Amino acid sequence: MTVPTTSYLSRLDLVLLDIKSGDPETYRTATGRDLAPTLRFAERLAAIGKPVWVRFTLVPGLTDDPANVDKIARFVAPMKNVEWVEVQPFHQLGAFKWKAMKLDYKHANTAAAAPDLVNRVIEQFRAAGCRAR
After folding, report:
1. In which region does residue 62 sit, left (phi positive, over 0), alpha (psi from -120 to 50) or beta (all else)?
2. Mind listing the pLDDT tens digit for each residue in 40-60?
């Protein structure tokens, strides 16, 4: 028997929702999926008032474009249920996992997000009205 999603969501105290990009092309590059279902789910969570922490992975050269961040910030800011936007700076700490699994690691040459870039993005979310950290 399948549990209706609304019933399932009623059992959760908090949803951690990753929004990798506000730009559909960048989202597809980062995830291999379409952005629209993630945004629809976020809107559904907002409609039922489910507490959410939005997580944004800041990848230099991929998700760091100010216009990309702005799209996410403008989408999230009006949502009263979003308690935090957590900016998660990209790093190389998990690179060994890709090697162990013998998988091609597309970000092997991507530098970690610099502190000034992280601060810029956090401030960009805050300027749009989001509680960001």
Report:
1. alpha
2. 999 999 999 999 999 999 999
Tokens 């997000």 belong to: 113
Rounded to two decimals, what is the model's pTM?
0.87
E-strand spans in the chain?
Answer: 15-18, 52-58, 82-89
Cβ–Cβ under 8 Å, residues 93 and 104: no
Please state which of the ranges 21-25, 81-85, 111-115 shows the lowest mean pLDDT. 111-115
If DSSP states are collapsed to H, E and C, what string results for 33-68? CCCHHHHHHHHHHHHHCCCEEEEEEECCCCCCCHHH
- The torsion region of residue 102 among left (phi > 0), alpha (psi -120 to 50) and beta comes to left
Residue pair 70/22 in contact by the 8 Å Cβ criterion: yes
Single-letter amino acid code for the residue at 12: L
Tell me if 51 sits within 8 A of 24, measured CB to CB. Answer: no
Q: Which CATH class is domain 5-127?
A: alpha beta
Cβ burial, residue 107 (10 Å; 0-12/13-18/19+): middle
Tokens in use for 24?
């559909």
